[in-house]
Protein 1
Amino acid sequence: MFKKTPTQLIYVLMSNLFVFIITILGLVLSDIKQIDVHILFYICIFVVAGLSLFLFVIYLSTSVNELKIISQDIRNNNKQLSSLSAISNYVIFESRTDIFEIGTDGNGELTWRFKIIRNTQQVVNEVNMPIFAEHLRGRTAQKKAVEIIEVLIDGEKPNPMDIYIPQFIRMPIHSNTKEVRSVELGNIRIPVNMTGSKTSVSVKIKMLLNGVFNEALKGEFALIDFPYLTEHFLLKLSSKSPDYIVIPFDDQTSKTVIEALRDNNENVDVDEMLIQAENWKYLDGQMIWETRYPKLGYNYRVKFRLVKKEA
């Protein structure tokens, strides 16, 4: 606002001068002989003073509104900073890679590769990663949707049976339960054991997603959640079958390949979607999304479809 003040003052002065000249010319062109010179002078003074006051009030009102906008922006920024300070930042994901391999049978394999940095003087024994997996439409699967295949933490192999902990299954509210898919919510427990001088750890987790992509031939999505600050993220999504490839899938809801959701209530962040739309590419039958600092606490949906390779 302060940078505009000199320009605004010039506009005010020019407006006053213009009005003054027009007033004088108007009076001169009239029957000036019938008007006393003193009266003419006072008329000009009152006209210019009145217009100056009017323009000053407009300028003052504009300045007050600008101050209100700036004040509101400052309050919003302070709220965002307060929100960020409340989020745990005891670990940072320096790098994260998600590799999805989708099968025509509806199953998929997901491989996580993390470089985790300890960002505190306190001991960090474990890191917990939430995971969401949809069951078959209209019914709940008889077995867990997530099965751990392999775990490597700095080259060591902990017991994979202790890694995945299913929490509960959520059935969306719908008039016809045969038309919806229940969602299994679970937790991946990663025993990082960062103590003493150990400030980083490399993690690889490979898991089987049972029936999670059973509609891949029609249109599916991979769901990626960011519960921790992530400096660099890379997604690779491809087909397990050599006879099929994945292609981007734009459904009728958002018309974009990557959806950015603020929370589990599916509040869409359109601005973030437009940003991430510039960060993905399609290469040799593989979808690749690479970005820096995806939004903390967001869920991202990457939409795809399996199609048969052309002969």
Protein 2
Amino acid sequence: MMKRLIAYATVAVLCFAGAAQAQKYSEFVNALTSSTPLTSDRIALVRPTTSVATTVDGLRRLGTPTAIGLMSLVNPSTSLTDLTDFYLFRDANYTGGSWANVNTVISASTTNRAGNLGLEWNAWFQLDNYGTLADASENTSTYMNSVKRTTGSTWAAIAQVTDYSTGVASGQTIGLEIDMQVNNADTSSNRTMLEMYVNKTVGSADPPTVTYGMRFDGAGALYYYGIAFDGVGSNYWNSLLGVVNAPRYLHGIDLTTGLCDSDNFKSLGFLVDCSGNVAGNALAIGTPTGGLKGVGTINAQNAYYANGTIGVSCAVGTLNPVTAVVINGIITTC
């Protein structure tokens, strides 16, 4: 373990402190391998500045255990041109291989044992943003970007969870959770839990086109709910689904290629079956009947669909245009 740590520290000295300071490496190794008892095995790599005391050109042994971790990189002073504090580059310049090989620039692994009551998180990224609206800056704790140069399949990010549990008494299994903590009303309407944005590449004259904004897939998977709105915690929605800023669309909901087993829409007292027939609350639309404009028959008390014409029979006798009221081809009064 010590040899591996020394090897990591060597890379840190060469890449972080600079080649000029690498000559001090032997002093650092001596500090690591010293037989003198120390109070901590924690090591910090600190970027040299006038405000931070260092002993070996940016490498400082911490005398007491702290919560900063086994190895820490600290940059107390930055500038507009200080692009990054730690940079890794991998050039996969080879041919061949198989799916059995998964190669990474950075690998991190955590094993959580039974009985641990703490929270084990394999990685933690945090941003403290004191920027203002006037700054017009956009800041994020994590940014993932992939560039598709030719035709290879490309993902910007993948979140995967594997569940081997078989009993009913099991904790939650969540592939991706998005949390937000707020303390007042969204008066500016700028809070969004999940946003999808499409733009065209630089120099492209074609409009950006995406086939699926969101797609649910799987290998024979069973979804109980494609999208579920949970009322636990007294959640309230002004609208479960809605449109803003007047978007243009061809179909609001398109189920034409679906394989319906029971109904296309179901609510309390209202149902649309797989054939488009509507039933519920004394309202029923059946198979098409009547003239060219007829798309169905509405059966309700004292109301008959007139197929867009005047002259059909009312409840009893012949329609009297003087006393009958016809709105959009529907007799509302007999």
Protein 3
Amino acid sequence: MDTKTMIPIDFSRKITPFVLGDILYSESIDESFEIDEEDQAAAFNLKYTGVTIHDNDYFVVSFADRPNTGTQPVGDDVMINVDFDHLCENIPASSVFWEGEGGAIGVGETWKPNKESMLKQYQAEQLEQEAKRMDNITMNGNDGEHYEKANIEKAAVKTLGNLGYSYHGSELWKPPIGKKPDYIEKEINAATALYAFAGWLTSMKEPITFSASNWATPAADMAAAFIELNNLSGDIDFDSVKTPNDSVISKALVNESEDDGPSVVETPVFTQAMKDSGSRLTIGMHYLDDVGKRCEYVGISSSCIIGRYVDMENVRSDHLSVCDEGKIEPIQTDEDNASQYINEYFEENDDAKLLIEEIKAGKIHGVKWVGK
């Protein structure tokens, strides 16, 4: 087939997307084929690039009928064929009542682009581009495209020269000998970058939480900003990265002190005592919502408590908990559990010795026997 009289798909796609039934031609295999699968249509509606076959290899042979959805599908000046009570060919899309009013075209009836008109539009655009190219040659002695390429090459030579590189007739330029000039920015190494990033995180005024239960987007955005600001180069290769065991992080949270002994960072929780005293939640505090899910308090709107789910089971990561302030429940502490157990024990038993035996056996959560 003569592709000079055909419409390239990248031009056609800008006017209307491809649908099932459209027929295309591949110049590389010299064959026509029909788009007969939705995935195939979706692929050609993107910037299609294969391993050996590229976007400019495909051309439109014919357009299939397209159902009217009730709205104008193309630009006002696009010429189309409309099939309602009789076939109307090569009319502008703006002349059709797409909503079905006036009996022009009803929803469900069909239309398609006029191929001959689209081909003329494409050819006119090509002639215009060629005219601009010839004007550039007449006025500037170049066609614009090659002039830009020459500018890029000149800029590359100038950049290498400023960096101290020299050209000696080989394919590659030779780097300068000796210490880099002060005006050449030094790239930090990986270890420095890691410690600097950690230093940035730990010096922030507002705390940020990172874990498997938190969104990863803030961490990724911060890493990207750090990389860009420090002009770090290289491809990101997660397959080659090794990470320490979580136990390393647990040890880092323990601050050994000669006076006070080890102290561990604890999460604030809304307790029964706080509820009884009428205390309110503070930002970051954990509580139970009205369906028993453990949440982290992030704010309040009117009388509704808004929290981020800590217990992510059967919950989408982008959902928040919203419940009435009066319906939140405290999280039981070890002391609460121990008191409840002891009270329930004495409601059913009157022998304290048996209770002591259970304490010694470690059966009461939160209570440890320290006597002889």
Protein 4
Amino acid sequence: MTDPIEQERQALFSAFQLLPGPDKAAVKLLAINWMPLGKSQITSALRKTLGPTGVKSIDFAGLRKSKILVSGSAWSSEHQSCNPLILELVARYAILDATFNLYADLAHIAAPLQKSYGAPAKNEIYFRNDDELIRETRLGMYWRDEAYITSLFRMFERHRSGYYQGSLKYCTDPSIIYGIVCSNPFDAEWFQGLPIGIRIKALPSTLSLLLENWRCDGQALALAMQSCNSAEALPEWINQTTKTAICRGDWDVAKTLLKQSPLNSTEHSLRGLLALVMGDIDAAIKLFQDGLALLRREQGSIKGLFPSFVGLFHIYALYQRNSTGDLDEAARLMVQGMDNAQFRPAYAILAWMPMLELDEKTALPKVRDQLQQAKQNPWTFWIGLLVLSRYQAPRTLTEYLPVMKRFGEQATVNGLNWLAAEMACLIANVDPKATSRQQQAAEFEAHMGVKLLFNRIQREEYWERALKAISNTAARPKESKEKKPWKPDWLG
């Protein structure tokens, strides 16, 4: 089974290589510039190298039709940008044909940065949005210039108060940008040529971004495993490799890696996730709770929730166990989960569970509406399916089958065997004719000796949930203690 996204990427890049000179120049400019540009910005910059005749021959309509360029941006539908699938491939192509610096200069002409002209910050950059910060950091990566990137973030920190657009406002280091560049796609040879300071931060960020989209690159994982087996293994590399190993179903590898991890909140959270997938929900919740206490101590705050998708499973585990106090604890954590911008839609779906427990008629349609909007986010989509499966028969989820199959195949192709088995189990319950998926899930359960999360769901009628809720909120009888008769102290 081949990855359809990789097939499309290679087809687009092959088409790019066959383009005539002026068209190829426009694509290079947009790839190196990163952010979208208007047609006049593109032609004005390229006129310096192509001349008036060459600029007029650029076939923007043909480039859009072939999907090498995509149109539309936050500012205007007339803006063009390079297709994200080949954006880094084109930039690396420009490195090889020694035109990268030329197009970097043209990018600064097409979309100049805002600089200060007054002392004491003369010539310092005022970043106005995420795209500008990403473009300049990315240029520094291709130039292999750590000092330039350091200076960018020093300026960004000084002028952060004027930065009002984008999710990177509170970004303190370039790790996430390194991951964006290196993961699209991962090229081991190019990556090894980067300075060690960039590689140290880039690899865990790359694995993280891939995993958030249910992807895993074999070369990136091999490099991470090699580093984790060395005496100088970094905690960030161990932690991210452990997450990937859990999702791949390599649970023995995950256990071994966790032995190398320092005892902190991240280590506790990953042990909790591993305990959950292996079926020990009580141990999982205990590890999550202890880890959360450590996290808040490390952050010096009474608030906090595990980052990435791990925090989702802390809350999901509480809902699944549903013992005394679990729902209240989950509700308290939910509020803090909404601060996680990337996984906010998943937390928003979990937030409906208290109303679903009470059989509120408006809750299910709301969850289904949110699930319709989560078809590009595999974690949110899967969490939503698990929530719906608790309150509705699986056969009512047939409208989601195409997306379920897409994510299931994506996980399978990328070797994420646990995630692939979970999605296969869902598909098999929604579509009884999907016997191959049923077999895939059953083989995983038999091999690992566990029940998948979907198979642990116990659908209950409203009256059963109501009785359970009453029993969970009932006061526990106090233990009787034998009381000794009172006597004055002086009697001894």
